[in-house]
Amino acid sequence: MTFTFQSEDLKRDSSKKLSQQHLFSLAMEEDVKTADTKKPNRVLDHEKENTRSVCLLEQKRKVVSSNIDVPPARKSSEELDMDKVTAAMVLTSLSTSPLVRSPPVRPNEGLSGSWKEGGCVPSSSSSSGYWSWSAPSDQSNPSTPSPPLSADSFKPFRTQAQPDDGIDESEASNLLFDEPIPRKRKNSMKVMFKCLWKNCGKVLSTAAGIQKHIRTIHLGRVGDSDYSDGEEDFYYTEIKLNTDSVADGLGSPAPVSPSQSLASPSTFSTSDSSRTETCAKTETKLMTPLSRSAPTTLYLVHTDHAYQATPPVTIPGSAKFTPNGSSFSISWQSPPVTFTGIPVSPTHNHLMGTGEQRQHTHTVLSSPPRGTVSLRKPRGEGKKCRKVYGMENRDMWCTACRWKKACQRFTD
DNA sequence: CGTGCCGGGTT
DNA sequence: AACCCGGCACG
């Protein structure tokens, strides 16, 4: 769209840099605003636009930074600052992730890639600006360093996680637990990306990470690990898990922390299929006994476009005792709406025989035998998307629900 | 009153 | 189709 014109503009006149930045922040602000109005409106669109424009702008910025010589005069503080940041980033990424060196921008990981470079941007508000990226929706004004307030304004998932993405699995999973609750939202959700590949329960905290994982491990794209044709999208899904309610649920000096039950981070090191297996197993072991009794690590997966309705939560192995992914999971988590699915992308899991796990066996859980044929449907008592996700997350509902049709995800 | 969803409308 | 919504029954 306006992109071409803008970048051209840039090249032509480097002195416009500032105004460009201005433009940038303006754009951000606008997006934020729209996203903030969340209420019952189509946030999704905004979000899409948002991310897209972010992408564009990111690219733009790169152009800027590469094409423009910063006059020596201003080089002092800004540049120094920037250098510090850059250096720090380089160091961290070097020390933690030997694997990842993200070249330019690639289609899928473009976002995360650019996040990293966000630090290098000669923005006037150097450091603070850089951090505020992570959640554009939190602050409408980039110049205010105010701490991100809980903000119901949040959009459930800003596509990719934090600025530290793309780091690498090992780091990613550790990071997750180190990082002291990035933004405290309603119930401190954690967005994770789970590999759906058979027998692989790998969970990473970044989309980039999981994509890479899939690419290298499952798709066998070793050499050109940077190349992404988007196929990975099919093999992972986003999950959200709630750290708060976990603690609540155990309600005591709980011996099991979410982190432990999720996956043992300690073992993460490099990509190796055997390792992934073990990880999956650990997960299973931990999950199984717990999930029978009380909610521990609450998470639920969903794959968006929903007629594939809640495909198995697929914790490999645990599926066995799970009569039905959806109704099972909701049943033990009522008031604190803890987990929610996340639309990653309009992809479908052809991987898991979608249908099979769903319906049947249902009867076990659902209401006692009802003899009456009833003229009108008894109205299933289970919570439907609307209840589960709430109005503000309408975009997470199954399509049917969005259209006010009979819910396809939580059938009864 | 909120929710689930039928029936019917629009794109 | 895909999408949206008025309106009604149910709780």
TrEMBL record:
Region of interest: Disordered: 98-174, 250-278, 359-379
Residue span(s) of domain C2H2-type: 193-223
GO molecular function: DNA-binding transcription factor activity; RNA polymerase II cis-regulatory region sequence-specific DNA binding; zinc ion binding
A single GO BP: regulation of transcription by RNA polymerase II
InterPro entries noted in UniProt: CR1/CR2-DNA-binding_regulator (IPR052253), Znf_C2H2_type (IPR013087)
Keywords noted in UniProt: DNA-binding, Metal-binding, Nucleus, Transcription, Transcription regulation, Zinc, Zinc-finger
Gene Ontology CC entries for this record: nucleus
Stretches that traverse the bilayer: none
Bias (Low complexity): 122-137, 252-273
Matches recorded under PANTHER family: PAPILLOMAVIRUS REGULATORY FACTOR PRF-1 (PTHR13006), ZINC FINGER PROTEIN 704 (PTHR13006:SF7)
Protein name (Swiss-Prot/TrEMBL): Zinc finger protein 704
Species the sequence originates in: Chrysochloris asiatica
